[in-house]
User: Which sequence fits this backbone?
């Protein structure tokens, strides 16, 4: 197999080899110039014991710092507890309306006339009632395209023309 190398590739390879050789020389000279005696450092503390002790505060001056160390949770400033929530108001559950057995048979809406054909499940006969009219004690409050609303003694029921049930 013949090695074919272009002149530009040969120049690049020569530059890389020269850089590696230079770095190797620098490394070897650094290792050779290290003095083993330089690692040993003589450490002398030159504090006069009389002067240093006289300038210090007594340990009692640091009592608050010792009681509440810097990085403890107890060091945080005092935050009072939030006030308790007000007592919950007990609402009376709404009265459950018993099914009166009414069925909406039809709706008629024309101009200002709005009527609903309401019949009872127990009685096969029905009655057309206008808004504000009365059927078995139930007053017809409103009529729309999909149903009617009946009300009696604070209870209300919505009768749908086409119930989903």
Assistant:
């Amino acid at each position: 197999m013949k090695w074919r190398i272009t002149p530009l590739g040969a120049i690049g390879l020569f530059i890389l080899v020269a850089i590696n050789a230079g770095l190797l020389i620098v490394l070897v000279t650094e290792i050779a110039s290290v003095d083993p005696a330089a690692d040993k450092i003589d450490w002398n503390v030159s504090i006069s014991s009389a002067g240093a002790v006289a300038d210090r505060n007594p340990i009692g001056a640091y009592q608050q710092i010792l009681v509440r160390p810097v990085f403890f949770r107890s060091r945080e400033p005092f935050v009072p507890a939030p006030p308790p929530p007000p007592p919950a108001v007990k609402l009376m559950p709404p009265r459950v309306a018993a099914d009166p057995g009414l069925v909406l048979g039809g709706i008629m809406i024309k101009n200002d006339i709005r009527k609903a054909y309401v019949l009872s499940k127990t009685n096969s006969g029905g009655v057309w009632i206008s808004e504000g009219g009365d059927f078995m004690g139930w007053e017809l409050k409103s009529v729309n395209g999909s149903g009617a609303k009946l009300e009696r003694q604070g209870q209300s029921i919505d009768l749908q023309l086409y119930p989903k049930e």
In short: The helical segments are 7-32, 49-55, 63-67. The chain has a mean pLDDT of 82.
